[in-house]
Specification:
mainly alpha, about 95% helix, single chain, about 60 residues, 1 helix
């Protein structure tokens, strides 16, 4: 009986560890895309700010 409980406990711990590793790995894989995405948003924001600044100074 105790061996069954131990087996279930180790199994759940292993599953949790595997899930954690999977989450970290997917985060690591999606990191470049997230960085690229934020850089694009930042670029667009900077361009908008720059054009607003230019139109403000020209008018």
């Amino acid at each position: 009986m105790t061996s069954c409980i131990q087996f279930c406990h180790s199994l759940s711990t292993g599953v949790l560890i595997i899930l954690l590793i999977g989450c970290l790995f997917s985060l690591y894989l999606s990191l470049p895309f997230l960085l690229l995405f934020s850089c694009k948003i930042l670029d667009r924001y900077m361009v908008l700010q720059g054009s607003a600044w230019v139109t403000m100074n020209l008018s």
